[in-house]
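Following the same procedure, backbone shapes were mapped to integers, yielding the entry below.
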Amino acid sequence: MDQDTLAVRMARLEGAYEQIDRRLGTIETQLHRLVEGLATLDGAYDQMNRRMGSLEAQMTRLWYTVLGAWFTLALALFVRRGP
């Protein structure tokens, strides 16, 4: 095998390696962006979860208020009516 053929083949390999390196760099960048996006999504999920917990607590308090009012009204009607 002569030197020119070997040099051409080596040049092709070097070009292929450079192209692979660029593609891997692009994949690495995209993967980093994906991880950042997932972290943002995770933060939004945590915030939504906290808000849902707060809403659940408010609804529970409202439910107890309604039950208390209903019980008070029923008791007042019962006392007013008498045995």
The first helix runs from residue 3 to 81. The radius of gyration is 36 Å. Residues 50 and 56 are 10 Å apart (CA to CA). The chain has one helix and no strands.
